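The instructor's notes for this session suggest beginning with a concrete chain rather than abstract definitions. Hand out the sequence below and ask the class to guess, before any prediction is shown, which regions might be ordered.
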Amino acid sequence: MRSLRVFAGNPESEIGNSVLVELEGTVYVPIHDPFGHIIEVLDTKSGRSVDSMEYTAFGEVSRLRALTCPWGFCGKRLDEDLDLNNFGQRYYSATLGRWVTQDPIGGGDGPNLYAYVHNNPLSHHDSYGLYDENSGSIPQEDFLSRIFNVKEYTQNILDLPCRVATLGLSDKLGITNEWGSSSVTDLGRPELKSGGIGFICGMNMTRGEAIEAGEYLSDLSGGINIRLVPTYSRGAVRDTVTCLKNTVGLFSPEEHRLASTWMHYLNTRQDDTPYLQVGFSRGCIILRNTLAKMPESIRQEINVLAISPGVCIDKKLCKELAHFCSKSDLVPKLNSLALRKAEKQGTVVYLPAHPEASSFDHSYKSPTFSPYIKDYLEGYISTWNQ
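After discussion, reveal the predicted structure:
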């Protein structure tokens, strides 16, 4: 297969840094998870997924669609004939969970010359097949920054249409601003002097509905800018299946967008104001999964407001936390174990259903929630903008 890959600036050993790939003359956009693995390949013209991969911790891959992208685990190229990943200095076997040759630098990374990142692939990484880069001098925060590459990767992925436009490639690739804005949407309203507010939507929402949700929260907060991480609908059946996968912890591309938004905020803020992340329904599941993969130092910079949560979040995963649940809403009760734990932690606020609310009362715009959301947002703003 003829193939070409474009990196975002310095390739950083390929991990989480691909912006475009060309396969047999067709250009695609790769999507990475927080570990730098390519997990989705999108058609640049339609925005549809043409290849989708899931990985075990040690890199065994299962494909969900027909197109075969040669890059995947840690962004490395897979030699299909050998079934080995080429890390540059040596080959890695995901099936065996180890290198197939001895470490080129000898025993400098430990006595086992074939071990992959000391058998700790969820929090450690090896860029070239030489040594575990988290075992010594590289802190975890720096590893996360390298995976997301906030200064370059976020700008290239989330603002891809603007990037390719400067190269005169928009027409050729079929990329438009409308499609590109599906990653993270900025309402363009006034920013807070200190702090930032984001919103991750629930399931079955169109782009227009997601923007409407952001505008609704912005109006409640006095017109402050809200950064949206949409969870666009792919149909009721697929949305439900995806939601169930998220509930048991399987990765969703929205996690990458959410974490990138946080990292960008934390790397550009002028003070120590925490970021306020609001989630609704399925968005709270993605929010929980993303927080669980972050280092403690990042978690303690995030405040969370969960509205009608698809799953309640552990208090230990963030700085401050509140769950707003209507007494008439069954969705938070679907995961009873998480709900009971949150109740014991004192983070659940049960609200009596408003007389004008629907019988199901599972909507971020429900009159049951609106005064409480307004008070919470205003409290955050006044606390950090005195």
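Then share the key points. The first helix runs from residue 140 to 148. The chain has two domains: 3-153, 184-384.
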